[in-house]
Design a protein that fits this description.
With about 160 residues, this protein is an alpha+beta fold. Helices cover about 30% and strands about 40% of the residues. The protein contains 3 helices and 7 strands; from the N terminus they run βααββββββα. It has helices at about 15-20, 25-30, 115-145; strands at about 5-10, 35-40, 50-60, 60-75, 80-85, 90-100, 105-115. It has a 7-stranded antiparallel beta sheet with strand order 1-7-6-5-4-3-2, covered by helices on one side. β5 (about 80-85) and β6 (about 90-100) form a beta hairpin. The radius of gyration is 15 Å and the shape is globular.
């Protein structure tokens, strides 16, 4: 089963980055290329423990629905979103945060299993791991850019 893991260093307070990472609006802005929209569950604001959201997006040319739930939550150090329904056989996306002076290290661990057994494993190697890595990195870069400027105020009510 593939695991995609990477870290992003952000020059901003840990609480700000933690909250931006669970913002429905920021997620939609980071996925503009797929037309991703929250259509059920929590459709705006910040996700919390037990909250679910259903996303509608166009991935790999196909419109899809995916429902995820926040299954672990320890502000401001960690949260996990896990797929409840969708195209994957399963996935867990862990978001870890650690403050190191003026830098917050944001670590993403995306652990997933594709459907279709052997065909899914082939798809993972041929394109899906690279596709998902790019998708997740795009999101992290937007969080970084927003957190390090005054743009964060658009997403967080302070």
């Amino acid at each position: 089963m593939p695991v995609i893991e990477f870290t992003t260093e952000v020059r901003a307070p840990i609480e700000r980055i933690f909250d931006l990472a669970r913002s429905v609006e920021l997620h939609m802005d980071s996925t503009a290329q797929t037309g991703e929209r929250a259509i059920a569950g929590v459709t705006s604001g910040l996700m919390g423990l037990g909250n679910e959201v259903t996303w509608r997006a166009r991935h790999l040319g196909i419109w899809q629905h995916l429902t995820s739930r926040i299954t672990a939550f320890e502000r401001p150090r960690h949260f996990r979103d896990s797929m409840v329904r969708g195209a994957f056989r399963r996935f867990d996306h862990d978001h870890f945060f650690a403050q190191q002076g003026e830098i917050t290290v944001m670590r993403d661990v995306f652990d997933f299993q594709s459907p279709f057994d052997i065909l899914g494993r082939i798809a993972d190697r041929v394109f899906l791991i690279a596709y998902m890595r790019h998708f997740l990195l795009t999101r992290c870069m937007l969080i970084k850019n927003v957190a390090e400027t005054e743009q964060w105020r658009r997403y967080l009510n302070v």
